[in-house]
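Hey, quick one: can you model this chain's 3D structure?
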Amino acid sequence: MTPTGNGGGRARQASSAEGVIVKRPLPYSFLLPVAAASAVIFIALGFGMFLFWLDVEYSPDAALVGALVATLAVMAGAIFLDYRSPKKR
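Sure thing. Here's the predicted structure for all 89 residues.
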């Protein structure tokens, strides 16, 4: 455990009323890429339902595979950007 008590996780600086710098952890730093990936899945499935409503010939399996590939791409991009971001030590 670090002296600031945040367990060594990612933290941001927040100043208190006395002017002392207190480190607080970012609690939801992983949920943003998960939410983006979920949005990609719902958009892809909604587009597939729209095509079904229009009676367009398409493969539902291809739509699900496309949604999965897009989800993995969003997650890989988020992990890569998090890896490349500068770390304060």
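One thing worth noting: Helices lie at 31-53, 60-84.
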